[in-house]
């Protein structure tokens, strides 16, 4: 009889182990590589294109030509907002004219446009606002207009509304030289990579924007194109014999991240490149700004800038440019001097760069060039004249850029948070990392902040609970709240911890398999909430809420790289620490507002979309998230009456209006939920007396919940002071799950599923307990 019972028990245990292991792959040999999804399509994003509009057309003096743009050369037939056009113009005789493009349904603006003379072709790349009929006008005006020969080539466009595919987004930079006097042979080319130079990221870039300057002993023509293509339609810069010429270029990168500059002439050319911005690809870890075109307007001048002098100018609030919320202003710069030389434009408050924005290569003749100028912190730009003679300068605004905001409006400035107290008994964060090279199982990693501000990191072999070793990694700093922790693309851990100064500090591991950490990095921006850290493609991103209740994101610049600056996302009126989980098309973010309503949005590359309110007035704490195959998300939250409530996305991705209550249990803190290896949703929570309780689905995807039961046996005296945190892990026996909490003495207790006990239980899981090794004493 006893032998028969043993056989039955063994069969039950094996059945449960098999059930828990269903559908769970073995531990991976290394960290996974993922590609971030594209940002949502939006108005004002840049779409690269190359199309010839005019080829040697003649425009009579003081005449105006209407040119159809929509539908030409593969451009969209409708919805065009801006077309970036390179104008190459040459006059006759004593020409001193200006070719002025503007919307077909607008009136002639009082601006300079693309300036020309008779000696050769001058280039000026301009963003031109398109009229409602899909056309633009080009007027031939100026001091001494003559008949002008015009070549006009489109280099890209933006749309008035979201297109069918996402475009690129612009980030202005402080100018920096990336090529310095390189020779391009006659009929030859020069290929270079701007990535990682002058503020351009090392990845996630589709086009780089730079001023191309060249000189040659005889006339020649230069063209800029991706490294994997030949010469394209049009010329980007025409060089005259014996002087320097320049033009703004939007250089599209090849698959290898490189740009080629070709020399179409029979004489060698020397070139310089000064980068002033870049377009982030739709899959970049952080989106830039979107363009808003203007009917061109004079915003400055003419003013004289003294020899070796500077002039500070505030373009915001002028010529249709908003007074706030602008990341860059598109300015056409007209210059003239009794001598030859150039001016440079850069943000105020910065050291003058050794760069060139636009030159005046012919004495007593006007020349023009374009720049998307980045304002300084005070909203001003500096016009610097490093030349030995005074120069007359005029500025015309053609466009401006605003941050990509997705489904939220531009938020108000952040309110600084005061120094923060250390939060008592914040929960532990725990995960099992990917298996490192030469191992089959990943280590279990723990991190928490104790009540005196120490940040403790622990590492454990999944087959040996007693192998756990704790290390204080806070140094001389004090931290508060549950730290964010995630594994980056190369398998190293990253921590985002809330310093008591209010800033979030980040710290990477030096190597994935040793207790060695890199330096702490303080990312200046006081936050009221703690940070949540999550994977986003091949990068990490942290989320937090500031003292004004606004949601922010802190993305890694590149895979395994450093972090940039915090990005305001919007969603004002929030409170508490947000929750986030990576899904197939981005990161789904959740946060409570001050009324306890849950808000959600989809984050992709610094932009929010699919913003929604999920209701639930009076919700408390931090919600817990479960992701199912296909990316569907279920939420668990603590309601106003302390019961646990839940809702799940439907097949279309929408959340229902109603919340479902999970039993009658009353929680004293936030729940923690997961998808077990058996494919069932499980949830744990802490009661007011410190006892730990468990519930879960009766069957996979049933949405029907077992009665809440204590996860502790009657003789277990452990009293949890922190909320439990559930996690899945794999050891040599296969995949399983458990949860961890700490008591008033900061001792950690782990509860893991007892396969045999759960097989015998009819309506609840059974857990085994283990007291984990104690942390080291405070020093």
- Report Rg: 31 Å
Distance between the termini: 59 Å
Percent of residues in helices comes to under 10%
Average residue-wise pLDDT: 91
Helical region count?
2
InterPro entries: PLL-like_beta-prop
Pfam family, one: DUF8189
Keywords: Signal
Protein name: PLL-like beta propeller domain-containing protein
Protein architecture, described:
With 779 residues, this protein is mostly beta strands. It has 3 domains: 41-164, Jelly Rolls (Sandwich), CATH 2.60.120; 169-280, Jelly Rolls, CATH 2.60.120; 429-771, Neuraminidase (6 Propeller). 3% of the residues lie in helices and 49% in strands. The strands form 13 sheets. The protein has a 4-stranded antiparallel beta sheet with strand order 1-8-3-6, with no helix packed on it. Strand 49 (725-731) and strand 50 (734-742) form a beta hairpin. The chain is elongated. Residues 1-30 have low confidence and may be disordered.
Brief summary of the model shown:
This protein is mainly β and 779 residues long.
Labels describing this entry:
mainly beta, Jelly Rolls, Neuraminidase, four-stranded antiparallel beta sheet, 3% helix, PLL-like beta propeller domain-containing protein, PLL-like_beta-prop, signal
What's the layout of helices and strands?
Layout (H helix, E strand, L loop, with lengths): L1 H20 L25 E13 L4 E5 L11 E11 L5 E8 L10 E3 L5 E8 L5 E10 L3 E12 L9 E16 L4 E4 L12 E12 L3 E7 L10 E3 L4 E9 L6 E5 L5 E12 L8 E17 L3 E5 L14 E10 L3 E7 L10 E3 L6 E7 L7 E5 L5 E13 L25 E4 L11 E6 L5 E7 L2 E9 L6 E9 L5 E7 L4 E5 L12 E3 L8 E5 L2 E7 L5 E5 L11 E4 L3 E10 L2 E8 L4 E7 L2 E7 L6 E8 L5 E6 L4 E6 L11 E7 L5 E4 L5 E6 L5 E5 L12 E2 L14 E7 L2 E9 L5 E6 L1 H6 L6 E5 L8
InterPro entries: PLL-like_beta-prop
Keywords: Signal
Pfam family, one: DUF8189
């Amino acid at each position: 009889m006893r032998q028969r019972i043993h056989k039955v028990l063994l069969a039950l245990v094996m059945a449960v182990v098999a059930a828990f292991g269903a559908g769970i792959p073995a531990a991976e040999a290394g960290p996974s590589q993922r590609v971030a999804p594209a940002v949502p399509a939006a108005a004002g994003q840049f779409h690269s294109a190359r199309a010839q509009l005019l080829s040697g057309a003649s425009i009579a003096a003081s005449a105006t030509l209407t040119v159809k743009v929509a539908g030409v050369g593969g451009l969209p037939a409708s919805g065009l907002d801006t077309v970036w056009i390179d104008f190459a113009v040459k006059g006759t005789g004593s020409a001193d004219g200006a070719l002025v493009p503007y919307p077909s349904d607008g009136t002639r603006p009082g601006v300079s446009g693309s300036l020309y003379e008779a000696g050769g072709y001058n280039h000026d790349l301009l963003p031109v606002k398109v009229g409602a009929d899909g056309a633009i006008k080009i007027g031939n005006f100026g001091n001494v207009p003559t008949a002008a020969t015009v070549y006009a080539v489109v280099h890209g466009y933006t749309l008035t509304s979201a297109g069918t595919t996402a475009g690129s987004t612009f980030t202005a930079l402080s100018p920096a030289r990336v090529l310095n006097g390189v020779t391009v042979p006659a009929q030859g080319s020069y290929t270079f990579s701007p990535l990682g130079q002058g503020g351009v990221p090392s990845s996630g870039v589709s086009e780089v924007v730079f001023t191309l300057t060249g000189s040659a002993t005889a006339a020649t023509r230069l063209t800029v194109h991706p490294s994997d293509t030949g010469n394209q339609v049009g010329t980007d810069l025409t060089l005259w014999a014996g002087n320097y010429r320049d033009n703004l270029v939007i250089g599209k990168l090849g698959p290898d991240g490189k740009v080629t500059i070709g020399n179409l002439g029979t004489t060698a050319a020397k070139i310089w490149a000064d980068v002033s911005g870049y377009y982030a690809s739709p899959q970049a870890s952080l989106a830039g700004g979107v363009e808003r075109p203007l009917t061109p307007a004079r915003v400055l001048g003419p003013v004289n800038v003294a020899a070796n002098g500077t002039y500070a100018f505030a373009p915001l609030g002028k010529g249709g440019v908003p007074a706030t919320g602008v990341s860059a202003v598109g300015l056409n710069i007209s210059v003239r001097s009794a001598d030859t030389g150039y001016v440079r434009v850069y943000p105020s408050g910065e050291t003058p760069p050794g760069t060139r924005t636009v030159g005046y290569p012919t004495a007593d003749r006007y020349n023009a060039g374009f720049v998307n100028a980045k304002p300084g912190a005070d909203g001003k730009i500096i016009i610097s004249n490093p030349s030995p003679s005074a120069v007359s300068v005029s500025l015309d605004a053609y466009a401006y850029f605003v941050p990509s905001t997705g489904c939220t409006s531009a938020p108000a400035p952040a309110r600084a948070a005061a120094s923060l107290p250390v939060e008592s008994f914040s929960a532990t964060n725990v995960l099992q990392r990917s298996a490192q090279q030469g191992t089959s199982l990943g280590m279990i990693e723990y991190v928490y902040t104790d009540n005196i501000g120490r940040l403790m990191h622990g590492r454990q072999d999944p087959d040996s609970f007693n192998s756990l070793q704790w290390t204080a990694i806070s140094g001389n700093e004090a931290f508060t709240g549950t730290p964010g922790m995630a594994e980056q693309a190369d398998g190293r851990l990253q921590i985002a911890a809330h310093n008591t100064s209010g800033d979030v500090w980040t710290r990477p591991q030096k190597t994935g398999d040793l207790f060695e950490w890199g330096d702490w990095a303080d990312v200046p921006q006081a936050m009221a909430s703690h940070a949540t850290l999550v994977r986003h493609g091949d990068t990490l991103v942290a989320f937090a809420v500031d003292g004004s209740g606004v949601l922010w994101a802190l993305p890694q610049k590149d895979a395994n790289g450093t972090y940039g600056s915090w990005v305001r996302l919007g969603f004002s009126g929030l409170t508490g620490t947000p929750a986030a989980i990576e899904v197939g098309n981005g990161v789904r973010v959740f946060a409570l507002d001050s009324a306890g309503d849950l808000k959600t949005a989809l984050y992709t590359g610094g932009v929010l979309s699919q913003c929604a309110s999920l209701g639930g007035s009076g919700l408390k704490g931090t919600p817990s998230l479960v992701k199912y195959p296909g990316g569907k998300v279920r939420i668990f939250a603590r309601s106003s009456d302390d019961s646990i409530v839940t809702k799940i996305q439907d097949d279309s991705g929408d959340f229902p209006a109603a919340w479902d209550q999970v039993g009658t249990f009353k929680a004293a803190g936030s729940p923690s939920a997961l998808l077990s290896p058996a494919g069932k949703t499980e949830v744990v929570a802490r009661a007011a007396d410190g006892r730990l309780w468990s519930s879960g689905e009766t069957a996979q995807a049933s949405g029907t919940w077992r009665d809440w039961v204590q996860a502790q046996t009657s003789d277990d005296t452990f009293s949890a002071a922190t909320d439990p945190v559930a996690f899945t892990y794999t050891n040599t026996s296969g995949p399983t799950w458990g949860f961890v909490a700490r008591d008033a003495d900061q001792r950690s207790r782990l509860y893991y599923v007892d396969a045999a006990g759960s097989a015998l239980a009819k309506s609840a899981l059974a857990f085994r307990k283990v007291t984990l090794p104690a942390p080291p004493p405070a020093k």
